[in-house]
Amino acid sequence: MVGQIIILNGAPRSGKSSIARAIQESFDGVWINLGVDVYEQATPARYQPGIGLRPGGERPDLESVVPGLYAALYESIAAHSRLGLNVVADVGHHDAYSKPLNCLVDCARRLAGLPVLLVGVRCPIEIIMERRAASAADKGYVTASADDPAPLPVRLWQEEVHRPGVYDLEVDTSLLNSAQCADIIREKLILENSNSMAF
């Protein structure tokens, strides 16, 4: 039996990582987190942020490695699933590089034939800014100022990460906490897999 795959796609600080942890803690079975934070730790410093490269085409010198990094990540996700392990991956897909890289299409192709649930994790920009401010000292996040309450990098994430925005399910972390989001995801999986898998 192959493992279930859940892809959580959203902007930084939208709550993806917290949902991934909630899934690992509350779902039955082994759930491996292969998201952007985990993958960035494995990426050499000179190529960071790797797949976390933000929209806007500001680092074309790094863009040549991004398709290969995404391909390797998704091949790993697929391999885990084929070995019967469940995978939750929190990512921030976009194609707003200096030129289109079409990573999302390639990633989807690599998961063809496997049980995948693509979840859009949404959160209003005002809440994103509050969360960025709360963890700015630890993470070095771009934060608001009196002149710019939502800086361009943050706006670009909000605009680009949900293109084309075709999901199996969407959750809004300004309305639901991570456990509640995980519960909604579980319900969706039960509906889709009621005869083959228990969560």
UniProtKB/TrEMBL annotation:
Name of the protein this chain belongs to: Chloramphenicol 3-O phosphotransferase
Annotated source species: Rhizobium loti
Pfam families, A to Z: CPT
Residues the record lists as binding ATP: G10, A11, P12, R13, S14, G15, K16, S17
A GO term for molecular function: ATP binding
Residues the record marks as active site: D37
SUPFAM superfamilies cross-referenced by the UniProt entry: P-loop containing nucleoside triphosphate hydrolases (SSF52540)
Organism taxonomic ancestry: Bacteria, Pseudomonadati, Pseudomonadota, Alphaproteobacteria, Hyphomicrobiales
Keywords tagged on the record: Transferase
